[in-house]
Design brief:
The complex is a heterodimer. Helices cover about 40% and strands about 25% of the residues of chain A. By secondary structure, chain A is of the alpha/beta class. Chain B is α+β, with helices and mostly antiparallel strands. Classes of the chains: A alpha/beta, B alpha+beta. The interface of A and B includes residues 81, 106 and 115 of A. Bound molecules: adenosine-5'-triphosphate and magnesium ion (MG).
Chain lengths: ~230, ~425
């Protein structure tokens, strides 16, 4: 379903090259839940951006659902992202001047599907996340947990094949954290969606099928036994 | 949700910067609409005056300083009344009629009015002290005042004794045949304010006058005038046998040039000008006003454009993460570009419409004190104002829109 072939990314900062990702190869099957852990600045977000079709790699190839992502025209890639990929952010990234309902509708609005279809789909999802009574609230009027639920509803409205989450529980209390994790696990189990999640939280990583570690731009497999020990400790 | 409502919601969230840019555009358009409307209306007024008074010539004191025809007698300087006789005696070609006037600013029951002395046609021939001249006058009494103009294309003999006797038509003919010493013709505004009708009487400077006729409204300062016999006004003003202006009506345009030089030679102490010279100043003024309004419009539109550009640049920078998120959700670069252009268009069109309304209202409020005619709003100015404010908004938001389209979508992961 997803394949990275020799992908590397070099940023230049004040003419100094920064190797954020070094020749990384990766294969992910449909319906898997992958967790990526690693220290700050190791290149996790860079990797997710590249996987999501938002950041062209310096070299290498990214294949998603049979398409070579960066050989697509940018508008075709945007449409592809709209239909096939969903993002979950640490800071939720809700549009501050739209209501919860409008935020959830947004991915459908961008490609102009019918208004009543958008609205009924969005309401269904808000109901699923127990936010029906918050539909008309702006993000600033919602708690962090509620905001992340709105963001999850927005991600799921297009039923993406691939969900990319960058520290989705970083700003949440344990209860809200649990709900986000359950939702993502559910996506994999009930709908067969592929989830790639970046986290600092090893207890979350332990729910994954596969845990990988990022260090100085190099991605490597972590054995789940080590992880369970870490999580227990 | 349509892109339009997305933009509208964003503007409503934080309207101040958009309003500031909108205001700059509105200022430009309102200046254009207001000044053009006034200049247009003034030009129409000038055209009307030209067609009504084309062949008329004003004989004024040298030092008189005047702005428009209807106020030609309000400068306070005087000429001897004898000039009327001199002009008749000269028998200039094409002189049809003459209207000497003397003004006195006064009040009736605290209402300010302009008391204007006019000399009835029948009096022109009584004033002479020379017997020989009297004989000549008797012959002329019926027809024109000057000698006949050959091949005249004008209004020769249009002014019959009949039309001169109808006092109500004075505002058109500007000549009356007879007027008793204490009879008055009163302007429409005066009649309305003082509730005067024909035959009613009123007190003026200690004398009792009778309303001989109420003149129809003309939309000029004549509506605030009370016309009475010249000699009565001369007595009341204690200035002796003088006038402020002598209007000489020529028979047609062809005689004006000749008449002016003839009158200049005859009356070296006076200033002789034609109506067209008088309105020329007005035409020049209109042209200048109109050009200045284009200049002002151009400057203000550039300011408006620059302010749209700066508001949109700031907006795109501030919303980097939000725009990146929209890209993560599938928005194409074109979509973001449209988002920015749509917002600029709303500011531009909003500014254009606001300016159109403000300019129109301003013209209607301020206009009448600049030109005394019913004011009509300039439609071409509105059209151009709207089109150009839209175009300016598009041109000046091109770069910010491009910036939005080239935004790195991965900014959505950053804490900005
Ligand atoms: N736009 C950029 N320009 C230059 N350097 C960048 C840019 N984005 C990231 N980097 C650098 O690339 C490296 C990897 O950054 P990245 O954001 O991928 O790390 P991360 O693993 O997500 O860190 P964190 O856990 O703190 O989010 C870092 O050294 C960072 O400073
Ligand atoms: Mg990161």
């Amino acid at each position: 379903m997803l394949e990275l072939i020799e992908v590397s990314k070099q940023y230049s900062r004040r003419n100094q090259p920064v190797d954020a990702l070094r020749s990384t190869s990766l294969k992910v099957d449909t319906g898997k839940f992958i967790a990526i852990v690693g220290p700050s600045g190791s290149g996790k977000t860079t990797l997710l951006s590249i996987l999501g079709g938002m950041l062209a790699p310096s070299s290498g190839e990214v294949k998603l659902l049979g398409e070579s992502l960066y050989q697509l025209d940018s508008s075709v890639r945007a449409k592809f992202r709209n239909e096939k990929i969903g993002f979950v952010f640490q800071n939720f990234n809700l549009v501050p001047w739209l209501t919860a309902l409008e935020n959830v509708q947004l991915p459908l609005s961008i490609f102009g599907s019918e208004a009543d279809v958008q609205q009924s789909r969005a309401m269904e999802l808000l109901e699923r996340f127990q936010l029906t009574d918050r539909a008309d609230h702006k993000p600033s009027e919602l708690s962090a947990g509620q905001q992340q639920r709105v963001a999850l509803a927005r991600t799921l409205i297009t039923t993406p094949k691939l969900i990319l989450a960058d520290e989705p529980t970083g700003n949440l209390d344990p209860e809200a954290k649990q709900l986000v994790l359950e939702t993502l696990v559910n996506c994999r189990e009930k709908s067969g969606q592929t989830v790639i999640l970046v986290t600092h939280d090893h207890s979350i990583a332990s729910s994954a099928d596969r845990v990988m570690t990022m260090k100085e731009g190099i991605l490597s497999e972590t054995s789940s036994s080590i992880l369970s020990v870490v999580a227990a400790g | 949700m349509k892109i339009r409502s997305l933009v509208w919601k964003e503007i409503r969230q934080r309207p101040a910067p958009s309003l500031a840019a909108l205001l700059a555009v509105a200022l430009g358009v309102s200046a254009l609409v207001c000044v053009q409307s006034i200049a247009d209306s003034s030009a129409q007024q000038v055209a009307r005056q030209m067609s009504e008074l084309g062949a008329n010539i004003l004989v004024l004191p040298k030092s008189a300083n005047l702005q428009d025809y209807y106020a030609a007698d309000l400068h306070g300087e005087t000429l001897p009344e004898e000039y009327v006789t001199s002009i008749i005696l000269a028998q200039a070609v094409g002189v049809e009629e003459m209207a000497p006037k003397l003004c006195l600013q006064t009040t009736i029951q605290e209402t300010p009015i302009t008391l204007t002395g006019i000399l009835p046609r029948s009096e022109f021939f009584k004033k002479s002290s020379w017997q020989s001249v009297d004989l000549m006058f008797q012959e002329m009494e019926a027809g024109a005042l000057g000698s006949q103009h050959e091949n005249c294309t004008g209004r020769t003999c249009q002014l019959t004794d009949e039309s001169m006797k109808d006092l109500k038509s004075y505002s058109k003919t500007r000549v009356v045949h007879d007027l008793a010493p204490y009879d008055a013709l009163i302007g429409a505004d005066v009649a309305q304010k003082l509730q005067l009708t024909e035959e009613s009487e009123f007190q003026l400077l200690g004398d009792t006058f009778r309303v001989a006729a109420v003149l129809p409204a003309s939309g000029t300062i004549d509506d605030q005038r009370v016309f009475a016999h010249l000699h009565t006004v001369q007595d009341l003003s204690e200035q002796g046998p003088v006038v402020n202006v002598i209007e000489v009506m020529g028979c047609c345009e062809d005689v004006t040039a000749g008449l002016v030089s003839e009158l200049e030679d005859l009356l070296p102490e006076a200033r002789v000008i034609t109506i067209s010279q008088l309105v020329e100043a007005q035409v020049g003024m209109n042209r200048l006003m109109s050009r200045l309004s284009y200049l002002l419009f151009a400057i203000l539109m550039l300011v408006g454009g620059a302010s749209i550009a700066s508001v949109m640049f700031a907006n795109v920078s501030e919303r980097r993460r939000e725009l990146g998120t929209l890209m993560a959700l599938g928005a194409t670069p074109r979509y973001l570009q449209r988002l920015v252009l749509m917002k600029a268009a709303m500011i531009g069109i909003g500014g254009g419409l606001t300016g159109m309304i403000a300019g129109g209202v301003l013209a209607i409020v301020v206009g009448p004190s600049i030109v005394d005619v019913p004011l009509s709003i300039s439609i071409p100015a509105i059209g151009w104002g709207l089109i150009i404010s839209f175009l300016i908004a598009m041109i000046f938001s091109y770069l910010p829109a491009r910036k939005a389209a080239h935004l790195d979508p991965s900014v959505c992961f950053q804490d900005v």
